[in-house]
Structure formats: structure tokens, C-alpha cells
Design a protein that fits this description.
Length: about 220
């Protein structure tokens, strides 16, 4: 059961401006689309994608670290890792299974000819957008279990973009579509409460001690 009293108490440590900012940002957050990264080799790309998730209102990021586990580059993420939920998996099968269990369709980003052009792609329900490694792209497992495919149209000689650039372009496009075409994209009341608690705790120094004192004085 959610502890409303604790949230009210902790939010008393925030300035009114900080609380208002949290509510403003949460009003633009979505779990309707999420991002999954499969063994991205350059960690600064993962960090940049976390920042893009924050900028375009995507709350959840799923990272498969089968071969390329590394620490986030916080200089590039610029604090966005505090506000985006990052879930880590040891292999792609676990990630795919969890996302499908949550009701997401799997959308693979790939330049293959049978992929839907980004401008024509409309989500047919909650969607997990998969991005692959810089060299090999997505694994056969993801490609075989994908429910759909999407690509960014290329008009020049280059056949691909940096993965973090691709993610930013696709997230901007999908974010705009969610908000303009009537999708049920916003967080639920329970999800908003959960993130208010999470973000408030992350904003208070020595929060564990403060919570312990609050609980002792109840």
C-alpha cells in the first residue's frame, strides 16, 4: 500500500518550485513506449540515449548487457539517469520475455527493406523500441521475436546513423505522435505517485535517516 503520509512529509523538504516542476514533468512522462538497447558497445551512446528518453518523456529504458557491460557516462547523461528508470538484463531473452509479459509489442529498428518508414509507423499498442549494437545491429533473437520493424529513411550515401542519433530521431517522432493522435500515453495515478516518491527521495540529502525518524515518531 502506498504511504501517502510519508510522501507528504518528504515533499515538505522540497521547495514549492521543485514540487511543481516534478508534477509538470510527470504530466509529460509515458510508459506507452519504452526503449531497449541490446549490447550497445560505446557506453556514451547509452548515456546519450538516457538523456533523449528524459527529453522526450520516456520513463523506462531497458539495457541488455550480455557482452558490453559498462558504467554510465554521467558527463553525457547529465543527471538524466536520476529521472529515467534503467532496467538491466544479462541477455536478450530475459529482456524480451519481461517486456512481452508487460504487454509491449517488440519493434526492431533495422534498415531492412521490409521495415516501415518512420513517418508511416503508428504504434498498435504499447511498444518497446529495440536498438542494436553499432557494428552488428540487433541479434537474430530480437529480429525473430519482433512484432514489427521500423527504419529512418536515408537520402544520402550513408546507410546508417549513430545509434544515439537514431534513438533521438525516433523518440522525437513517436513522442509527437503519441500526443497528437489520441493514444492513452500518460502515466496512471499510481505511476505518478510512485515517481513522486522516487524523485523526492533522490532530491533529499540523508533521506534514509529522515525516513527512519518519521517512522519512529508515528
Amino acid at each position: 500500500m502506498f504511504d501517502h503520509e510519508l510522501l507528504a512529509y518528504l515533499e515538505g523538504y522540497l521547495t514549492p518550485g521543485r514540487k511543481a516542476r516534478f508534477m509538470e514533468v510527470l504530466g509529460q512522462r509515458t510508459n506507452y513506449i519504452t526503449v531497449a538497447l541490446e549490447d550497445v558497445y560505446q557506453m556514451h551512446n547509452t548515456s546519450a540515449i538516457i538523456r533523449s528518453c528524459d527529453v522526450f518523456g520516456v520513463q523506462q529504458l531497458h539495457v541488455v548487457e550480455d557482452r558490453n557491460a559498462r558504467a554510465l557516462d554521467k558527463n553525457i547523461a547529465m543527471g538524466a539517469e536520476k529521472w529515467v528508470d534503467v532496467h538491466r538484463y544479462a541477455n536478450s531473452g530475459d529482456c524480451l520475455g519481461e517486456l512481452k509479459k508487460r504487454g509491449y509489442q517488440i519493434i526492431a529498428t533495422t534498415p531492412h527493406n521490409d521495415s516501415t518508414l518512420l513517418g508511416e509507423f503508428i504504434p498498435q499498442g504499447p511498444s518497446a523500441i529495440f536498438f542494436g549494437t553499432e557494428k552488428e545491429g540487433l541479434s537474430k533473437e530480437v529480429m525473430q521475436r519482433a512484432d514489427g520493424f521500423v527504419k529512418i529513411p536515408m537520402l544520402g550515401f550513408s546507410e546508417s546513423l549513430n545509434v544515439s542519433v537514431s534513438a533521438a530521431i525516433i523518440l522525437q517522432d513517436l513522442s509527437q505522435k503519441l500526443r497528437s493522435e489520441g493514444f492513452p500515453w500518460q502515466l496512471s495515478e499510481d505511476e505518478v505517485l510512485e515517481k513522486r516518491m522516487d524523485w523526492t527521495k533522490k532530491s533529499i540529502k540523508h533521506v534514509k535517516g529522515i525516513i527512519k525518524r518519521f517512522q519512529a515518531n508515528r
